[in-house]
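Page 42, continued from yesterday. The earlier attempt failed because a stray header line got pasted into the input along with the sequence. Redoing it now with the clean sequence only.
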Amino acid sequence: MDMGGSGIVVEETSGAPQSPVDEAAILYASGHAETAERMLKDILNTGDRRAWHMLFDLFSIQNREKEFEQLALDYAMRFETSPPVWQKLGGGSAPGKPQQAEAASLELPGLLDKKATATLREGIAGIDKKAVVRIDFSRIEMVDETGADECAKILAAARKAKRKLQVSGVDRLTALLQDLTRATHSRAVHWLLLLELYQTLGLQDSFEDLAVDYAVRFEVSPPSWSEVQAAEVVRAKPAEPVDDALQLSGEITPANDSALQQFGSYAAAHGEVLVDLSQVTRVDYGSVSQFISVLMQCLGSGKTITLRGHNALIHELFRVMGIDQLAQLLPRHPR
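This time it went through. Structure tokens are written below.
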């Protein structure tokens, strides 16, 4: 492709898949979701996490929560780490099924005290039981005895109720509690909150070590470990950037090319091209060439391109088709 002396050289490629993951991505992009699903399930035993995340996102797009949760259990056992948390992708819900509530965020203040924990308890109680609850600990600077006691009870109750939790800023709280437990006149409630925090995070070794120290320090039996799904640790949500990213949604197909028309118009009017694909469920294989054409026009004009929030199925398609060489990709599941 001649880009008018810009120095960009494009070599034509057939897009032929080089691996089962590549093939599954192209099958899904071509509208063969069932075949892609069978192939992805066959790949799981190889331990390729790309296939796992593609299957997670396929179930999320199709609103198949039961299959998602079973896959999450298998993932946790195989990789010994927290699996993704259920969240319906793409908007809308399957016929006859209520739409999954999105994650609700509860931010704790600098002082974890009775007032803060009362707000936390009320916040969790007010969130749909099927929704993901995100708790942000990143602002905590101090923990008093009442706050520690109440917070431990709240986390324990959420765990026993099998609430789906996401936590952020948890390293800060963990470090603060570790300092408190090392103090000469440490309080049992601080130890108990740290034990409950380790339980919530699925850190059994840390829990067991601290439980032994607790028993020695206070001469009482420590809490027992329970096998439950660990909370997902996420980065503390930064302040929402003030940007004018183009928000696309649904499927991008030759029959529904309005998204690509929006993309082209947006790109023509912006020096930095930022496109949010978090609500796009599929990019059709037949639309890829037009998608690349818009990207090439941007590059030919010296513009930077960032595509963000796309699901794993789209990410692998972009990789197969070389779009990762044309734009910065910030997928939903970071690599």
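Notes: The first strand starts at residue 104 and ends at 107.
Reminder to self: strip header lines before submitting.
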